[in-house]
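Changelog note: in this version the structure field was regenerated for every chain. One regenerated record is shown below for reference.
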Amino acid sequence: MRYKLLLISIYFCYSCLQGETTPIIDRPIVFKDTLTVFDKNILTIQNKIQDDLAEELYIISLPKLPHNKDYLAKIQLTALKFGSQKALKKNYQQIAIPYDNTNYEIVKHLDLSYQNIHFIPNKITRYHNLQYLSLKSNLIQAINPNLYLCKNLRKLDLSSNGLKKIPYGMHFLSQIKELVLADNNLTTLPSLLSNLTNLKSIDISNFHTNMAEYYNEIQQVPRVLFRMPGIEKIFLDKLPLRNLPNGLKKITSLKVISLNGVRGLNLAQAFNVMSEIPNLLALDLSFMGRQTLPPNIAKLQNLKILIWHEEEQMNEDYILETLKNLLPNTKIFYGKKGIATPFLRGNSISTLTSAGY
């Protein structure tokens, strides 16, 4: 009787395993043999991270089976673990995507926010004209390198994913121009990011306070940015910065800096650094709790736009009596009723330029 039960158990475990290891319908796209050894190593690491996450997440979801002396339960659990990776990979490839039954060529914006997604499905690469992909407020820790095939992808939003490190697969996305990494668990940015040679805008801010679920604990402006001379906008809102590095002046194309809510910043030191950034156009110093600013802000004579909102416009008198004389060529926005403030994140450089006149 014991042998019959054992055979029956093995049969059911085998059937379960067969169902879980069904081939993935949407197979990953294979890259041509133009990859360097470094690229192949990156892909190997990427696949390992993805597989480890898949197994860990699947095992957590398994029913709690007895682990004492129940031999049949252990056989069943072993069989389930064996099929865990392929089973979960199959599931994440079948993630529901908006516009999935429409003409893929017409889709330019895809919003997958708040979907509890751990992996980026390959089916996204069907959208050949995709320009903006939002994956914010998910649980993504690995980048699908097949996103490289979305040649028109310009903006990628990975905010609020709890990222502690930038995923290796980012190395392949050199086509993107705007990267949003706000509200994660980052402490810096890796040198690997310099491969994003077309990047124009990077956002490593904290939109919320340090009471939020995720918080970027970036205490120094990452040095990798100094090796990315094409960047035009940097958003550093609510980061625990104390000063700005001299290396910022190496980014000769830099035109917009947002320091909204960076209350611990040494402004006198920061103004000295920013005065050497040759093409700085717009600066946001809002909500820093200041009624006045260090007088060396007068060094920023090329600045066209200064955004400086404070609670109840407590800086208004200082702006009208002093600051406008220090910066006669700068248009200052301080939240006055009826005067719209330029949106630094959304507006193009040409739009901001015209707003400064």
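Spot check on this record: The longest strand covers residues 109-111. Residues 74 and 266 are 61 Å apart (CA to CA).
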